[in-house]
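[scheduler] slot 2 assigned
[scheduler] job type: sequence-to-structure, two independent chains
[scheduler] chain ordering preserved from manifest
[runner] begin chain α
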Amino acid sequence: MKKYIKPVLAGTVLLLIGAGLWGYWKYGELYPSTEDAYLKSNVIPIMAQTTGRVTRVAVTENQHVSAGDLLFEIDPTLYKDAVTQAEAQVAADKQAVDSYLRKVDAAAAGVTSALSAKDTADAQLERVKKLNGNGHASQATLDDALSAAARASAALDSAKAELLAARAAMEGNNDALVAAKAQLSTTQTNLERTKVTAPVSGWISNFALREGSIVTAYAPLFALVEDGDWWIDANFKETDLPRIQTGLPVSVSVDMLPDVTLNGYVASIGHGSGSTFSLLPAENASGNWVKVTQRFPVRIHLDPTDQPLRVGASSSVRIDTTAQPDPDFAKRAE
């Protein structure tokens, strides 16, 4: 009997080892994982939108700021002067427009008066013509009426010409006023831009700005790591991709937070392997080609958390392919 014990024990051990290996393989198939994963967030380059000397720095390296907080200020002197000049030009152009508007009103009144005078002269001419035809008015009287009607017509033409000239002058000055107002708006915007504020809440990074520095418009000065939107870029083997779908739940462990498990979901699956976009892509046509399982990027959005996360941190992720994909995963990212 004893001679069968060892074979039975050996068989049992082998069976247990086989079962364990099969369980390990099956678990890896149902819960694909990778340690080739890194924490990401929006890294926003901070730059001035105008050129000048920095007169105030309100933040320091690694400081947390909220959206709208002042980051630094640029000397506003030149921009204030530009606003003052633009305001003066607007006032002058407005005064000119008002003056020409009064001239237009006066010219319009002159046209009305000249038209009335012409109507009166024309009516008088018609009466004199009838009287002259009946012999009750002399030729001299008729000539006077004709002259009066002609003068009234010429006066009306002159009044109309003055009105057209006044309107043209007013339109020209009105165009100048519109341009002056646009220039004023530009100078006011430039003045506002001397105060640079945080576009989103986050952490100041790569900061070296100092008072007295000369900054150029749209030249990156430092970075702001947004704190409200975090994701993981994980690289999975191509053999894992058939089981991965968008919306599947994911558990994440960040190396810098070993006792914390973060939750998220698969947001998207890349359509190109990591080597496809590398600076030196693989040369598969060479004679020493060796087949290597490729890895594809899978983006995993994290649920909101108050944990102190940092961009670039190494992570481990595990996807639960046994769960039903969340149909509202896109809304969770909003």
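[runner] end chain α
[runner] begin chain β
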Amino acid sequence: MSKWEQKNGAGLTTRRTFLNRLWIFLGLAGLAEFAWLGVSFLGARRDRDRPEAAERIVTVGEAASFKPGTVTPVPQGRFYLARLADGGFLALSRTCTHLGCSVPWDEDKHLFVCPCHGSSFSLTGEVLTGPAPRPLDTFAVRIEDGVVKVDCATPRRRDRFRAEQAVRL
């Protein structure tokens, strides 16, 4: 090292430089911790929302116990079981297709009415009044030995109601 470098401190780390680098390191470590927490949170949420194979099949009850023209809320699922006048079954999502609000069944009006923006849906889930852009989503229904079972893993989007969407005995 030359005399000039020794006199002027060239090649040595000053306290100011050391503290600046320390703060940068601590800031990056803090950002990395927040990123790790965010990834962990989102990963856990995604796993929680994915039903296990055994949990996604919901046994609703004996098919004969549901009267035609009725709607039954299913607490352990996120759907209503609608028994159509012709005897067919539909599992309708509780989620409005407009903005995702929970849509209750109004027994007096015989309609699903969204409390958020006033969309209404028929017994088959068809849009009667907007702003909902499409009918309520459905879930797969099957009847095994007279027992109604619904696969609530994946809702099925549809653009309108068709008679073949209803499952019959």
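[runner] end chain β
[qc] chain β: The beta strands are 57-62, 70-74, 79-83, 89-93, 105-106, 111-113, 120-121, 127-129, 138-144, 147-156.
[scheduler] slot 2 released
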